[in-house]
Design goal:
alpha/beta; Spore Coat Polysaccharide Biosynthesis Protein SpsA, Chain A; 8 helices; 13 strands; 26% strand; globular
């Protein structure tokens, strides 16, 4: 049961195209990383529960690798599935393949996240029309660092130039914003991840994306076995009562 109803039409789009090869030791190279069992449930179930807790019932998962594994999970959770046949080129193509509505707001999420459910509430209630959720840097080796312009808007995302803020993989965007992004031609960037391209678009075309910085947000991405251990020992004890 949800505890809040959004005032605007909001749909969640979850990017789940990647192979997750760095988790092969855990998945055997078969199970999609978003569907691995974590504390008795598929990992993505926690995001689905958080979204529904705050009134988001329209949820689309953009698939790629292991597409056939999604049917039962989607039926059980009343999810819409959209397939990206070009998923091996990178997450940018998965975002471009999403079926974005014409109006309303989009919560954009990556599929391999574990976080306190209040993160969704914080993004939903942000006064910014377009926002990226950030935290302080994590003690992992896979941070994506956030760089801003003089006005404090998102300018760049990368793994090479450390800052004290990192992206979490959770965004709020106006549907018309994402639609405009999807109409762009990104020649030479087709095999890139979506996040640095979206940041570059926001800065280059003066389409500001604000930062929502929750310094001590309990969260992590689970993209390798070390992340899984961190999630189990450091994140889960802080968030398990939030679902």
């Amino acid at each position: 049961m949800s505890i809040a109803t959004p005032k605007k039409a909001i749909e969640a789009i979850i990017l789940a195209g990647g192979k997750g090869t760095r988790l092969n030791k855990h998945t055997g190279g078969f199970t999609h990383k978003a569907l691995i069992s974590f504390e008795g449930k598929p990992l993505l179930q926690y995001s689905i529960n958080a979204l529904k807790k705050y009134g988001i019932s329209q949820i689309q998962v953009v698939t790629g690798h292991a597409m056939e594994q999604w049917t039962d999970f989607a039926d059980e959770n009343e999810l819409k599935l959209t397939h990206n046949p070009e998923y091996e080129t990178g997450s940018l193509s998965t975002l471009m393949a999403a079926d974005c509505p014409e109006q309303g707001e989009i919560l954009l999420l990556e599929s391999d996240l574990l976080y306190h459910s209040n993160a969704i509430k914080s993004v939903l209630t942000s006064r910014s029309e377009n926002v990226i959720l950030c935290s302080n840097a994590l003690p992992t080796n896979d941070n994506v660092y956030v760089h801003t312009d003089e006005q404090g808007h998102l300018k760049e995302l990368n793994k090479q130039k450390p800052t004290h803020k990192v992206m979490t993989g959770i965004w709020k965007l106006q549907a018309k914003y994402l639609k405009a992004f999807q109409k762009q031609e990104f020649s030479g960037k087709e095999e890139m991840h979506y996040d640095p391209v979206l940041a570059e678009y926001a800065h280059k075309f003066e389409q500001p994306i604000d930062l929502l910085h929750i310094a001590d947000l309990p969260w992590c991405e689970i993209d390798m076995v070390a992340h899984l251990r961190y999630a189990q020992t450091q994140v889960w004890p802080q968030i398990k009562d939030s679902f």
